[in-house]
């Protein structure tokens, strides 16, 4: 099942310069904070954690703070993101870093830093049943086959292991999508997957009682160029069906004019983000690897 005709090679390229996407970190950190509030309500003490789509490692530091002694694996498809984490670890262990070690996030100290993995969400180089928690913040919508990702995440989770993720939903960037629709017929933003479709994929992948919810965050802008800069910092357009080549000055001006027409009474332009949250547990297996049913009997205890 394809969520969109996404060019994964281009996704890696779009995230190959961490500085270019740093401008959208404010949104990632806000959503990560809301996810942590949900996670703190779950009674779990994970020993092994995977941050899938770790970026430059901000959430890794939080996990080391929340779960002292846990092994944190940081995975991203863009090697440059992992290089950034390595550079942070080296800086943290410099002479000045050692001097201020008591104030340095544990995840950035060399001796307890994260294990870094460059790879595909749907093809993890990890053994089955090796993780207690998989966390993924605003990363899943960059993968063309989330159903395969969920199946793989279930494989590497232990029984009763927890999956928690966030991603954008269909109403994200709807104002920009409408502005471009007045210019041409090419897709300029991802066609984000609906929350209910994600829930169905989780069930089909074998997760138990997935919980999905959604909220909308609206940013407003006075300056259209600032709006577009923030959108570009989110990652760009990796669709195979995107316009090939530049759209031209006249098309760009037409799009800006369409955005201008969306100004509200206060003179600002809205930009919507539909944020989808999901979490689910891996249940006890009901079948063996070869498809045979597993029947469990709870025998009564013998009285003394």
Spell out the key features of this protein.
seven-stranded mixed β-sheet; 11 helices; alpha/beta; 304 residues
Shape: globular
Number of strands: 7
Low-confidence stretches: 105-111
Sheet with the most strands: spatial strand order = 3-2-1-4-5-7-6
Describe the structure.
The protein has a 7-stranded mixed β-sheet, sandwiched between helices. It is an alpha/beta fold. It is 35% helix and 20% strand. It contains 11 helices and 7 strands. The protein is globular. The longest helix has 15 residues, at 25-39.
How would you concisely characterize the structure shown here?
It contains eleven helices and seven strands. The chain has 304 residues and is α/β, with parallel strands linked by helices. The protein has a seven-stranded mixed beta sheet with strand order 3-2-1-4-5-7-6, sandwiched between helices.
Per-chain topology:
Elements (H helix, E strand, L loop, with lengths): L7 H7 L3 H4 L3 H15 L8 E5 L5 H9 L4 E6 L2 H14 L2 H5 L15 E4 L12 E7 L8 H11 E12 L5 H8 L13 H11 L2 E14 L2 H10 L15 H12 L8 E13 L23
Parallel strand pairs: 1-2, 1-4, 2-3, 4-5
Antiparallel strand pairs: 5-7, 6-7
Helix pairs in contact: 7-9, 8-11
């Amino acid at each position: 099942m394809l969520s969109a005709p996404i060019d994964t090679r281009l996704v890696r390229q779009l995230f190959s310069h961490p500085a270019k996407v740093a401008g959208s970190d404010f949104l990632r950190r806000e959503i990560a904070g809301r996810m942590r509030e949900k996670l703190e309500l779950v009674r779990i003490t994970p020993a092994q954690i995977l941050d899938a789509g770790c970026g430059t490692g901000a959430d890794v530091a939080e996990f080391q703070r929340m779960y002292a002694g846990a092994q944190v694996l940081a995975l991203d498809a863009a090697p440059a993101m992992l290089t950034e984490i390595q550079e942070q670890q080296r800086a943290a262990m410099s002479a000045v870093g050692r001097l201020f070690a008591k104030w340095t996030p544990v995840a950035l100290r060399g001796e307890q830093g994260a294990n870094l993995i460059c790879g595909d969400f749907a093809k993890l180089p990890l053994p089955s049943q090796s993780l207690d928690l998989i966390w993924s913040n605003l990363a899943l919508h960059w993968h063309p086959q989330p159903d395969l990702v969920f199946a793989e995440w279930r494989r590497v989770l232990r029984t009763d292991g927890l999956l928690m993720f966030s991603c954008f939903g269909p109403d994200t960037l709807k104002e920009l999508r409408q502005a471009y629709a007045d210019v041409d017929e090419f897709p300029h933003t991802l066609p984000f997957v609906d929350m209910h479709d994600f829930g169905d994929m989780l069930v089909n992948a074998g997760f138990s009682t997935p919980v999905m919810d959604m909220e909308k965050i609206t940013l407003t802008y006075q300056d259209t160029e600032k709006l577009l800069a923030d959108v570009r910092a989110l990652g760009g357009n990796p669709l195979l069906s995107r316009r090939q080549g530049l759209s031209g000055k006249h098309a760009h001006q037409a799009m800006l004019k369409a955005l201008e027409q969306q100004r509200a009474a206060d003179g600002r332009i809205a930009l919507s983000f539909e944020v989808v949250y999901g979490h689910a547990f891996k249940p006890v297996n009901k079948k063996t690897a070869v498809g045979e049913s597993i029947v469990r009997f709870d025998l009564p205890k013998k009285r003394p």
